[in-house]
Write a structure and sequence with these properties.
There is one protein chain. This protein is of the alpha+beta class. Helices cover 26% and strands 33% of the residues. The protein contains 4 helices and 8 strands.
Length: 136
């Protein structure tokens, strides 16, 4: 099992978001695969819960450590079925025709970066600015 070394640096989120997402961050070693890179991270709300949305090497992952401490993970590969849009400046809609997630109340600059990274990954572009997933 791998673990995230210095998750604050890897996720690039503000300290308050990391405090709210401590359960989600704690679950990352079981979610992120060895050798994966975090390209963008986003904190927001989904189903009235704080969630962490990650754009990583081969997929987009939503992590929710819900109010009963169950970790919910939903993932989407970067392929032609992946849809991404910004219904508002502080929200993002991501998923497929069968399953869409609307993450809301996020910081606008994180939404812009996340959308840009995912669109580049869908197009098959390399993302130069990424953080390696490190083992301790």
């Amino acid at each position: 099992m791998s673990s995230v070394a210095h998750p604050n640096n890897q996720l690039g989120l503000d300290p308050f978001a990391l405090l709210l997402l401590r359960g989600e961050v704690k679950a990352l070693p079981d979610i992120i695969r060895e050798g994966e890179h975090i390209h963008a991270a986003l904190h927001g709300y989904w189903n009235q819960e704080h969630v962490l949305l990650l754009a990583i090497s081969e997929r987009v992952v939503m992590v929710d450590n819900n109010s009963v401490n169950d970790v919910v993970v939903i993932e989407f590969p970067y392929d032609s079925s992946l849809i991404i849009s910004k219904p508002t400046a502080d929200s993002i809609l991501i998923g497929t025709e069968q399953q869409k997630l609307k993450i809301r109340n996020s910081l606008e600059e994180f939404v812009r970066k996340f959308e840009s990274v995912v669109k580049k990954k869908i197009a098959g572009e390399d993302i130069a600015a990424s953080v390696a997933y490190e083992e301790e």
